[in-house]
């Protein structure tokens, strides 16, 4: 179940990162509310995942999902650059996340 919590926490990180962008520096009410709610939920799920997963693995995967996901959403929906090097960098992040998952051992 820890891996499910971690993946959902990572997806929620993408939501709050995009929400933060849409909040325009927390000057728009509803995007600010979405950002705060998803941020708290993301942290809570990460904490639950860390009960069973090593901190380094859990945190790196959480941030990797968030970073790659936010970059992909930015490219697809927010008009951010889609040049080859950016896409390659996102692929490297995804590769690192997959590698950490494959090498993970339960926390001591």
UniProtKB/TrEMBL annotation:
Membrane topology: Multi-pass membrane protein
Entry-linked Pfam families: Multi_Drug_Res (PF00893)
Gene Ontology process terms (BP): xenobiotic detoxification by transmembrane export across the plasma membrane
Residues that span the membrane, as ranges: 27-47, 59-78, 84-104
Membership in a protein family: Belongs to the drug/metabolite transporter (DMT) superfamily. Small multidrug resistance (SMR) (TC 2.A.7.1) family. Gdx/SugE subfamily.
Entry annotated with the keyword Transport: yes
Domain of life: Bacteria
Keywords assigned: Cell membrane, Membrane, Transmembrane, Transmembrane helix, Transport
Intracellular or extracellular location(s): Cell membrane
Name the record gives this protein: Guanidinium exporter
GO molecular function, one term: transmembrane transporter activity
Entry GO CC: plasma membrane
């Amino acid at each position: 179940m820890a891996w499910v919590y971690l993946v959902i926490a990572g997806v929620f990180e993408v939501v709050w990162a995009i929400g933060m962008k849409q909040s325009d520096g927390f000057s728009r009410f509803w995007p600010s509310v979405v950002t705060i709610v998803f941020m708290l939920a993301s942290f809570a799920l990460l904490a639950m995942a860390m009960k069973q997963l090593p901190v380094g693995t859990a945190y790196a995967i959480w941030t990797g999902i968030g970073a790659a996901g936010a970059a992909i959403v930015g490219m697809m929906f927010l008009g951010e650059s889609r040049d080859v090097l950016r896409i390659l960098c996102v692929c490297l992040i995804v590769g690192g996340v997959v590698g950490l998952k494959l090498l993970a051992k339960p926390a001591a």
